[in-house]
Amino acid sequence: MSETTEHDSAAESSVTRGARRYVALLRGVNVGGRNKLPMADLRDIFSAAGCSAVRTYIQSGNVVFQAGQDLAERAPEIVTESIRRQFGYETVVVVRSREELRQVAASNPFDTSGDPRFLQVAFLADTPDAEAVSRLDPRRSPPDAFAVQGRHVYLHYPNGVARSKLTNEYLAAQLQTASTMRNWRTVLTLLELVETP
């Protein structure tokens, strides 16, 4: 069974003129039995917001969709409020365009030829200023390393992510913006999905 599921609503038979492809990344859903969110319900939320060609990938809250730029910019607020109202908890929703995701995939400063589980990308809601970036301690969790590029933090975990102190919570607190992480394999898979009609 495919891990990718597409919404089959008849309302998606036509695509709004000027619509572009986007990826939405949710933080902390369906993790350890907490913040449960069926992907069918998540697709319904995006469709109800006016998005088309809505697809989800695995259960951790990855959504590929089409929308006009204005709707895509408002999607994090709309989806966050819908989840709060329907499921009773707060989450973070970060959106990137297809072009932005291409740039993410092309800009990893670490060696991407090895095991993709040792590479992660933190997707930030906002671009941190230089002062915030300077608060990140490169010696916090050796031999782990990071590199900040705009609204993304590339992370390399040579010994795996489980015991690292370079956590999503640490990044969000120091950079003063919401953040959600994806491993390199997921980043590349999402890029494939957003490139596929």
| CATH architectural grouping of the largest domain | 2-Layer Sandwich
CATH class group of the largest domain: Alpha Beta
Global shape? globular
Low-confidence stretches: 8-16
Helix content: 25-40%
- The chain-level structural class is alpha+beta
Largest sheet: 5 strands, antiparallel
Largest beta sheet: strand ordering: 1-3-4-2-5
Q: What would the average pLDDT be, to the nearest integer?
A: 91
Percent strand: 15-25%
Q: In angstroms, what separates the terminal alpha carbons?
A: 20 Å
What's the short story on this structure?
This protein is an alpha+beta fold and 197 residues long. 32% of the residues lie in helices and 24% in strands. A hairpin with a 2-residue loop joins strand 7 and strand 8.
Descriptive tags:
five-stranded antiparallel β-sheet; 6 helices; Alpha-Beta Plaits; 197 residues; alpha+beta; four-stranded antiparallel β-sheet; single chain; 32% helix
Task: Please describe what this structure looks like.
With 197 residues, the chain is α+β, with helices and mostly antiparallel strands. It folds into two domains: 88 residues, Alpha-Beta Plaits (2-Layer Sandwich); 95 residues, Alpha-Beta Plaits, CATH 3.30.70. The protein contains six helices and nine strands. The strands form two sheets. The chain has a five-stranded antiparallel sheet with strand order 1-3-4-2-5, with helices on both faces. Helix 3 crosses helix 6. It is globular.
